[in-house]
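Quick sanity check, RagB/SusD family nutrient uptake outer membrane protein:
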Amino acid sequence: MKNIIILSILGMLCFISCDESFVEIPSETTLSTPIYFNTQSDFEQAINGAYAPLRALYNGTYGAWAMGELRSDNSTYKYNPNDRGTIQGEYIADFIEESSNGILYTKYANNYYVIARVNQILDLIDGVDFDNDDKNNIKGQALFLRAFCYFDLVQYFGAVPLHLTPAATLDETALPLSDVDEIYQQIIADADLASELLPDKDTQEAGRVTTGSAKTLLANVYIVQKNWSEAETVLKAIKGYSLLPDYNDVFDPSMKNNSESIFEIQYKEGTEGFQSNFFYTFLVQPITADEISVVTGITEVARNIEGYNIPTPDIINAYEVNDLRKDATIGYISASGVDYPFIKKYAHPHSLTNNTDDNWPVYRYSEVLLFMAEALNEQNKTDEALIYLDQVRSRAGLEGSIATGQNEVRDAIIRERRVEFAFENKRWLDLVRTNIAETVMKEYGERVKANPQDYYFPEGYGVSPSSYTTINQLFPIPSSQSELNPYF
């Protein structure tokens, strides 16, 4: 833990020129000290810096997708017997736990980077005099980010240390694990206050969180806690958003931060270092340069390690006939002369290989609608729940749900969430919070073991016999942290 918090304390001092827009965040190269916080501009730059680690959290080989999708029955890897150096994703997918896995460290560390930065802002901001509305906006963003990161940590790791103030000494960087209920109480308090302090979408700068973002996060927490009435109340207070008519447009980089977007991670194509690369990370491999160029239309380079987040036959078959989301989400590409599925929703025109302009969607208005459907159904308001469910289905070109009764509607909502949010890091957490992770993943594991070639294994290869035997619902805290913290 100490090395994470030390890096976080230093990292939060890496700020951004106030001449740059929020989306165009420059390189973090300049260190300062706590005396830096003297003006409104200082805090504006600091809150920009607090968002920055989220790009690393969602992008690249060790992105959040590995624990949110690859862990589930939605995606898998293309086994490459000639490359055994990039197999940490296999362990995540196959339920072979390793606390030294770099994927776990990436999630754990980047969340704490954000937390350390916002703690410094919240600790100092009330001591500096500037416009109250602007101050509340910055405080609201900081509180949202802290709540968001602790919600991410507690869902994936369970009990974690709860840092709420800057660490002034080395000893203060190591704290004991906090009780899960205490962590949730803090998340709710932060998200609730953030919802009061933040402006709405119409008045907030594009790309920043809003009162709607905070309320959606708060509702998500209540959904996980099965506090259905509180979730309903919060969800009904979310205003100013609407579904885009075309599902394809939701992910189009030319329509970033659109009317459906409640919170998305900001990326920018170009040479400044803020680009995304989801399309390339999720490519089936080995694959030739020419095969990639067929899809991208630009000069490419061959890729010869393992492909990750490849859509499984299970998710492909989960779409109903005529569901417009299927073609928008999943495409096909030839790799070494064989056609494989790939995640199409992050494939858009760009100019440079491994350098895309796609943002990552975290919360969309369709999730508010499906959360509302779930909250209502769990309170036996099934007919009302179907109204919200069918709004999402209608945009997908589907008829209204034929489900009747609470149990059928519950299953219909989870099925709808699976295809609506495919490859947006929702599936694993949905399996866990609905208490079906063990059943679903053991059955999935049996299918993979029985027919490994259906799951992209070369002839003669398959998963380890020990795979899918124990379906752990939480991940171990990275060993690099537990070895340094005397409390655990």
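Posting the structure with no commentary besides this: The longest strand covers residues 330-335.
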